[in-house]
Design a protein that fits this description.
The complex is a heterotrimer of chains A (426), B (86) and C (175).
Chain A: H1 14-22, E1 43-46, H2 50-63, E2 68-71, E3 87-88, H3 98-109, H4 111-115, E4 126-130, H5 133-148, E5 154-157, H6 158-164, E6 179-183, E7 187-188, H7 191-204, E8 208-210, E9 215-221, E10 224-230, E11 233-236, E12 239-242, H8 248-253, E13 262-273, E14 281-284, E15 289-293, E16 298-309, H9 317-330, E17 339-349, E18 356-359, E19 365-369, H10 379-392, H11 406-409
Helix pairs in contact in A: 2-7, 2-10, 3-10
Chain B: E1 2-5, E2 9-12, E3 16-21, H1 34-41, E4 50-57, E5 62-69, E6 75-80
Antiparallel strand pairs in B: 1-2, 3-4, 4-5, 5-6
Chain C: E1 16-18, E2 21-25, E3 30-36, H1 41-48, E4 57-60, E5 63-69, E6 72-77, E7 85-89, E8 94-100, H2 104-109, E9 126-131, E10 134-142, E11 145-151, H3 155-173
Antiparallel strand pairs in C: 1-2, 2-8, 3-6, 3-7, 4-5, 5-6, 8-11, 9-10, 10-11
Classes of the chains: A alpha/beta (426), B mainly beta (86), C alpha+beta (175).
Bound molecules: flavin-adenine dinucleotide (FAD) and zinc ion (ZN).
Amino acid sequence: MQFACKSASMRYSGFKVFLEGLRGQSGWKPVWRDPEPKQEYDVIIIGGGGHGLSTAYYLARNHGITNVAVLEKGYLGGGNVGRNTTIVRANYFLPGNSEFYSHSLKLWEGLEADLNYNVMHSQRGLINLFHSDGQRDAFARRGNAMINQGDDAILLDREGVRRHLPYLDFDNARFPVYGGLFHPRGGTARHDAVAWGYARGADQRGVDLIQQCEVTGIDIENGRVTGVQTTRGAIRAKKVAMVVAGRSSEVAAMAGMRLPIESHVLQAFVTEGLKPCIDHVVSFGMGHFYISQSDKGGLVFGGDIDFYASYAQRGNLPMKEHVMEAGMALMPMIGQARVLRSWGGIMDMSPDGSPIIDKTHIEGLTLNCGWCYGGFKAVPASGFATAHLVATGELHETAAGFRLDRFETGRGLMDEEGTGAQHNLH
Amino acid sequence: MRLTCPHCGDRDLREFTYKGDALALLRPDETANPQEWVDYVHNRDNPAGTTSELWYHGPCGSWLVAVRDTTTHVTHRTLSLAEAGK
Amino acid sequence: MAKLIARPATDGLLPIEIGKAILEDAQPQAITWVAPFNRKKSAVSKTLGGFPGPGEVVEVKAGRALSVGPGQAMILGAPLDCEGAAVADQSDAWTVVALEGAAARDVLARVTPLDLRDAVFPEGGTARTLVGHMTASLTRVGPFRFEIMVFRSMTQTLIHELERAMKHVDARTKL
Ligand SMILES: Cc1cc2nc3c(=O)[nH]c(=O)nc-3n(C[C@H](O)[C@H](O)[C@H](O)COP(=O)(O)OP(=O)(O)OC[C@H]3O[C@@H](n4cnc5c(N)ncnc54)[C@H](O)[C@@H]3O)c2cc1C
Ligand SMILES: [Zn+2]
């Protein structure tokens, strides 16, 4: 056991819940501290999203590095980690991505026990639909790649899909359902609980989580990072990690870097709570639509990015219309549900659609970005690999493909969608 | 969001396709070194604020440059490629 | 040799009348695309009897000339040829339908992002825009009459979209 117990938080258990029931819920303590920033840390992590918090957690848990600050300009989990459609899967195809997401899913499977926190990880199964013979071949190939990686994949024919998802419109004239690739271990997790769970775990091990603290400058002397400037004063550190998702270009510019990143808005939607009707995660790639049902009953769904550079955390109406049209085309029954809310998050889009976890040309400065619209499932493995890189200076074997220089050299590009390794194609 | 097509005038966003940073108009010349090409093809300023972008008006086939704010979605100005010097 | 029977793309599909709108075939005898070569615009304009500027419709010798893009017009009417311009016969490539009636503008408002108010799109105005997800050319030929032109292969989709919008508008007015 490695409980530093510097923090006010406590271990959760069924007995604890029972006891607090008897005590009138008077014994619960804040889940993490709210410390003043110190003048110096061993490691500063910029960004308190999923990836920043998991990096802090694994620095402490795997490497015993606990003199760490996470600097968050807003509140923990206020960024993309609390805005996504919560899909967790390991169905990547290309070497480089495949082993990484496979590792991530294994970490997910042990996460609640590891964090002593309920992140509501639900392996309800994910089905990716296909609508032509060519697409079936591509999914069969992807399924084989998944199985070779040690993960699970089952190719369903049309009747197989019908058994799982009887409510689809199978005879849609444009995209008739031919079958689906079923990934039983895929599913969802409660997104903000993931941020809170990692935050609590990091705090318990001594990490300072500092909110309302925006990094405004990165200090560099003789090619080495020496600390950061923030809205709460200067803080020194010999190691700094930039883990700010959609804001990566802005923060990297503080270190004089221009990144191969464009920020785009992606929207998500939720309906009123309904009785259980969608048991899986269903992904309709041809219509750019994916959906699952939350434990509260809301249908959570999304589509494609709005397709223009944006830092506004809201989207435009035309894309809403497009996503709803796709949903109606796939499962006409959802036309009966009323949409309660929609929102947007800022995606750090990389040219090849794959992420970057790498050192920079500035000593001590690490970069984690390029998650596009798929970085939620990556939260555990990304923190694991980034912590490894920060602690040891070496790329972790599961994330060795996420090199920044692949765009410069053309070696190791990971164009998972096969659309070309260029901006605006993913 | 609305943009102004140099041929058709003020139109709805749905009629347009985003074609990336207007940096694409500043193609390096033959003598450029590899780093200049990487900066041109892959690296982006990606500002939170005013940016210049290429857009395409599908219905009539015109290209334009939009000077836009990425935080508010306000379009300050649109130029035809001729006005942009291309 | 077998004798082929020419049929219009809208054969058997039109007309449709729902509520205060009627959708009918408006295919002209010929559709010709004309794009004057550099510095040949005034000569071409003289030959044709006019050439439309952006957003304009001009009555020319062969029929009605619509602006369809920078330096390009589509002439609906009699077949023609013209010196000093790129000319292409598009008669079989496009379908033209007309939507007419007091509800016509409300129907179109459901399927096109174009601003259809009188001040922006008056009688005699034309625009390249979208109808449903199709690129289209839309012309206001009368106070309550619009002509809609799409690629011929999309005829059925166009009619389906418009018929649905006609039904929806009609249902609204009956509430
Ligand atoms: C609508 C939507 C749906 C999505 N669906 C899925 C999905 O189904 N499955 C999936 O795997 N992924 C999905 N994603 C992607 C996923 O959410 C992101 O890739 C991932 O959350 C990004 O990493 P993060 O959690 O660290 O980002 P964030 O939570 O955005 O964290 C970055 C943090 O950095 C902070 N920051 C920025 N600048 C500064 C600064 N100067 N100083 C201090 N702090 C700063 C921000 O405030 C923010 O809290 C979706 C995203 C969106 C928006
Ligand atoms: Zn135009």
